[in-house]
Amino acid sequence: MQMALRRLGGHPRVAPASGRCGARRMLAVPPVTASAANASGASMYAPAAAASPAEVAAALSGAVPAVPAAAESADLPFYSQYPLDRKSEWRRDGPRLNELFARPDAKLIPLLRDKVLVRPAVAADTTAATTGAAATADAASATAAAAAPPPPALLQPVLLCPASAHADLVGSSPARPFLGLDAHGAPYFAVGLPGDSPAGLAEAEALAAEAGGGAEWRGARLAGPDLAPGDASLLAVASGLMVWHNSTGFGAASGGPMVSTPGGFSRKSAPPPPPPPPSADGNGAAPAPAAAAAAAPSRPESAYPRIDPAVIMLITSRCGGWALLGRKREWPTDRYSTLAGFLDLGEPLEAAVAREVAEEAGVAVDLPSVTYAASQPWPFPRSLMVGFFGRAAPAASPAAAATATAAAAAAAASVRKRASKSAGTSAAGDANAAGDGSAGGTGGGGGGESTVMAAPAASKGRAWWQAPPGSAGLPEGAVVGGFDLLPAQGRRAALDVGVFREEVEEVLGGVQALQWPVVDEDEMEDVRWFHRDWVRAVFAAPGGALSVSGAGKFNVPGPYSLAFRLITAWAGSLPGEAASKLDGGSGGSGCSSGTATMPLPLPASFTASAPTQAAAAAAASADGEWEGDRIPQVLIGEGTFKYVLARLWDPRPESEGGGRSKLLVWGDPRAPYHNDLLQKAKQMAQRYGGLKVTVLGGGRIRHDPQARAIDVYGYSAAFGPAPHELAAALLARWYPLYDKDNITVSYEGY
């Protein structure tokens, strides 16, 4: 029987490129009232008119009223939603800028080095007034619910108004940048406070106290995520500019002093000081001002804010089901993100993607697959993040082998360097660090002997995650498939219990095609592959990672980051908290049960060139959700217990949405027999549309969550031994924080 395989969670639906982002603040428009509907003869709940650009901008604004043109940036990344009309053509017009600064509605943004002055945001009025005395109670309640605004930002900037009342601050500031006009035409400027002296710090604290309302100085980067996107973008630009002005007091070529231009977006050589008045020396001669003439540059020097471009990329496996994420040692526990890095001089963006992934993860990238996704300014202090999607090169390709060799050499050199700096480093510790190339402390290590029951030693020979030896000599793109992916014992077990060839390819093919990261710990603490199904499950879980077995405290950067957009675009869903925050809990946003439509469509070229398996999965998921997705693919406990490998399948014909299947790995310390696990799976399958379960063998599992280690071994007296390599691959999919070397397979023992 030919069966269409379907992984849990399926392939994410790709949102139309022209569609609006589903994960953004929604503009609620109240329905018409009963009286208005009756007067016009229309339905009480007639479709609301499309929101104007001004209304969209108002819905996305924070403390700074956004101009209508800002509505076009509503779908852009967080720091790209600049709320002002920059009016860059006015930056050289000093008299005009002075007039704007003197206006009573001019706003001034104070800055203290890289800090901004913010206060807790005032909660918006969520009470919606109904129009029309004849509105019914139902219409009134519907109107109030529809008009409820999205959750407000936690912080808002302190804006000094009128700006001219604080002209004394400008005198000690290196610049007075003009930032633009808001929706009401009010001009915005920035000013830097001196923070390099006790007097300057005291002045800054006095300004915060004068602002009141709990105002305090916070780092612009830390405060940004708690601000509205427009406010955060504005403060980030102002902060980045002021940091640049403070660090560019002198010209790089001449060494002479530099001053800000009127608009504050460039600096130029300071005019030479006037010559001193003539004075007679002892002989009555007037000396020439030689020192002043020597200090004045022959040609005026100009400087502009430097922008450091960086690439940030989501690299996936060849089939698209796995994504490469990493973490730095100083990040919060179990925080993972996309890889990123700065460009080298003269380097194209696409080449930088491949180089950074090779340096940080030891994974070769298929350069033609690198596709632009989005960009975002990251002015902390002066970066531009350019986002890309890309795919890893085949594991058997020469590029992958060369990259892995170079990465292993770099990792070994890093270990030797650290060992030379630490006299207390033991030889055993050096050998362990150099041996597996993984980041210390993340995988959990070997964990020592089990306190429950010692499992048999892992089978010698090829590991479950290693490709067959013959695949290395095949042409690029050609792979060994089917039962040849299994070693001899696993192949015999699979044939005995009736595993399908397609099931072996779906479970093991993608894993064995992965390039396993070789991490240079000077760059990253850990880099590993995560499966889309697992990421989607964590995002959808009501309690997040804390409610998912083996997920630790897994988390990704917040919606303010480009990494968030790349990860959620690939996963096809949003974390529950992020979906609620972005959409205000709106039922019309596509968010339900903690998921939402992806905020960034995958490029057509990326999906069109994917392998046939991914295309088939996408076509299958387009038919709608499958009841089998509600049944967990991996369900195990802790300690040592029996497990079964089973096939969950839909007996209906494909024309009625059937013909789908997936493998299950279920084990429970409370189950005395393998058949108890099978019956439990059958009962659950029957409740979901009459699905069927076929057992495919069994064995035992020893699971040590503290050591993050799983051993799969033994056999079932009733059903025979399962092909444990398939079980190990599925366990690795659903326990990605466990190192692959800590998931072992053996056919010995019972």
UniProtKB/TrEMBL annotation:
Residues 270-279 have a biased composition (Pro residues). CDD domains: NUDIX_NADH_pyrophosphatase_Nudt13. One of its GO terms (biological process) is NADP+ catabolic process. Residues 255-301, 423-454 are annotated as: Disordered. This is NAD(+) diphosphatase. One of its GO terms (cellular component) is peroxisome. InterPro entries: Janus (IPR007702), Janus_sf (IPR038596), NAD-cap_RNA_hydrolase_NudC (IPR050241), NADH_PPase-like_N (IPR015375), NudC-like_C (IPR049734), NUDIX_hydrolase-like_dom_sf (IPR015797), NUDIX_hydrolase_CS (IPR020084), NUDIX_hydrolase_dom (IPR000086). Belongs to the janus family. One of its GO terms (molecular function) is NADH pyrophosphatase activity. Its cofactor is Mg(2+). PROSITE patterns: NUDIX, NUDIX_BOX. Residues 437-449 have a biased composition (Gly residues). Residues 305-552 form the Nudix hydrolase domain. The keyword Methyltransferase does not apply. Substrate binds at K642. It comes from the Eukaryota. Its EC number is 3.6.1.22. The active site is at H674. Pfam families: NUDIX, NUDIX-like, Ocnus. Residues 280-301, 423-436 have a biased composition (Low complexity). Keywords: Hydrolase, Magnesium, Metal-binding, NAD. The lineage of its organism: Eukaryota, Viridiplantae, Chlorophyta, core chlorophytes, Chlorophyceae. Transmembrane segments: none annotated.
